[in-house]
Amino acid sequence: MKIRTADDVAISHAATILRAGALVVMPTETVYGLAGDATNPTAVARIYAAKGRPSFNPLISHILGVEDAARHAVLHPVARSLAERFWPGALTLVAPRRSDSAICELACAGLASVALRAPAHPVARSLIAAAGTPLAAPSANRSGRLSPTRAAHAAEDLGDAVELVLDAGACGLGLESTVVAVSEAGQVTLLRPGAIAREEIEKHVGLLAAPDARSAPSSPGMLESHYAPRARLVLDASTPVADGVHLGFGPGAASAALNLSPQGDLLEAAANLFAYLRKLDATGAPVISVSPIPQHGLGEAINDRLARAAVGR
Ligand code: TXA
Ligand code: MG
């Protein structure tokens, strides 16, 4: 891991790293973000691994503006008007994800929604433009630690999980973005208070709804909109189930229809998880059996996600 002053040369080097699927710490006006290519599930799996998150929480994808956002989300006129008023800036919009969005499902934790923010920081903007792809970026701290407002904080916390830390000094706001959800019907809900005060947003769209059990960001896994296969899931299956298709893990699962990682690599398995579940579900088989997944590293998040998918809707 290297820390470099965020000049043009460093930014273009960072963009090359991002396009190769590796991670970079980037400054934003709120806090430093741990950035990876939001369209590359391997890069996104690396973000979860670096953060040490116990489950796949949905990540914010950073883009340049409302035109970009419209490629990934269904934007109600209210969402558009919030974007026009507060972007670039410290507002994150959660909106229904377009089925043709290039942002991978792992970045959205399998939810039917996507979180988008156009940051104002010039380094973040140059980096998004140079990488040519939306950048998934949670705050650049390990899970459970404070959000970093200086490059050195992020570097200390993340170590060699990132290739490069772009240093642009202290963050101006020092507080994460405000997260609001705008439904297809245009209802606006405050999901996380942040750098833009609730009152500022209410001046623009009227009173905000309080998050209900369905949209609570603290428990995204409980959302009904979470992807669950139509097929019944049988977990911890060492051998394929009759009438089913088998989702393998590791070298012992040679006869599986698909294998999350023949080498038993949990990062690779996380990157393949949502796409492979979908593919097997599309075969129409009544049952999908899944090999045991070890409960360490990203395995914990994979097992958490599988357990929720097994419960169904
Ligand atoms: O200021 C910020 O927002 C920073 C900088 C780097 O942009 N990023 C940040 O990301 O704080 P993170 O991952 O630490 O927080 C993302 C928040 C979480 O509360 C998450 O639950 C919520 O956004 N979120 C993301 N996608 C969501 C979705 N589809 N539905 C509901 N909540 C979502
Ligand atoms: Mg955070």
Describe it.
With 313 residues, the chain is an alpha/beta fold. It has 2 domains: 204 residues, Alpha-Beta Complex (DHBP synthase); 79 residues, Rossmann fold (3-Layer(aba) Sandwich), CATH 3.40.50. 31% of the residues lie in helices and 18% in strands. It contains 9 helices and 14 strands. It has a 10-stranded mixed β-sheet, sandwiched between helices. A hairpin with a 5-residue loop joins strand 9 and strand 10. Helix 1 crosses helix 5 and helix 2 packs across helix 8. The longest helix has 17 residues. The protein is globular, with a radius of gyration of 20 Å. The structure holds threonylcarbamoyladenylate (TXA) and magnesium ion.
Q: How do the strands and helices of this protein lay out in sequence?
A:
Elements: E1 2-5, H1 8-19, E2 24-26, E3 33-37, H2 41-51, E4 60-62, H3 66-72, H4 77-86, E5 91-96, E6 113-117, H5 122-131, E7 135-136, H6 151-158, E8 164-167, E9 178-182, E10 188-192, H7 198-205, E11 232-234, E12 244-248, E13 258-259, H8 266-282, E14 287-290, H9 299-311
Parallel strand pairs: 1-8, 2-8, 4-6, 5-9, 11-14, 12-13, 12-14
Antiparallel strand pairs: 2-3, 3-7, 4-7, 5-6, 9-10
Write a compact overview of the structure shown.
The protein folds into two domains: 2-205, DHBP synthase (Alpha-Beta Complex), CATH 3.90.870.10; 232-310, 3-Layer(aba) Sandwich (Rossmann fold), CATH 3.40.50.11030. 31% of the residues lie in helices and 18% in strands.
